[in-house]
User: What shape does this take?
Amino acid sequence: MSQPMQFGTYPSLRDRVVVISGGASGIGEGIVEAFAEQGARVAFLDILDDAANALVERLAGKSVKFYHCDLLDIGAVKQACAQIVDELGTVDVLVNNAGNDTRHDLEAVTEEMWDRTLNLNVRHQFFLAQALLPGMRAQKRGSIINLSSIAWMIPSTDLPAYVTSKSSIIGLTRALAHRVGMDGVRVNSVSPGCIWTERQRKLWFTPEYAAQMMERQALKIELQPADVARMILFLAADDSAGISNQSFVVDGGWV
Assistant: This one.
């Protein structure tokens, strides 16, 4: 009889200040919950007020705060970061999670759609890092985890702007890692595969797609947000102190 899975606890994450973008739903929600369970002080940014407030209520008793922020508005991003630092102190961990993978045909892409997709998926990652790095560098410690995707590795062909944005995150990660490593700050990226979020189930996970996914994955399991969150916990904790400038894939062995 198989034993139930048991997962790690990271003492170094207790009381650390963690900022997560797009934390109200999907993978982001799983990341917020994972850090809260580790005893971290979690601040997450989103525009989905109802979902965010419901998450905070569900995690009552944990140190979790929601900050309404439109990540397309860089001024608002900077203001939110300043407020978080003022209220919680120096940020130890930044998880750049927010993104949008709405499918789009090559022929249907407009200049406006292209700019919005790249701005939403990658621009905020840089400016959140820029805003929070001074505190990390001053304390000679910090971890930044940028969320990419296996979409650019496969590559997916039905969302070219998204694929472009997610591939650029790898370059951003490498550039930042070498720039701030001398100050003790680590920068890595995580590329999820097919994660069974509520949004994915509702919009795209047809029986045909699910069958195709299972055929391609080495592990015949439905990956959940918690599977991604556990990799991020490790990269945020002191256990990964020697790891930076790396890209990790959580896809059940697809690529």
The beta strands are 17-21, 41-46, 64-68, 93-96, 142-147, 185-192, 247-250. The chain has one domain: 11-249. The longest strand covers residues 185-192. The domain at 11-249 is CATH 3.40.50.720 (Rossmann fold).
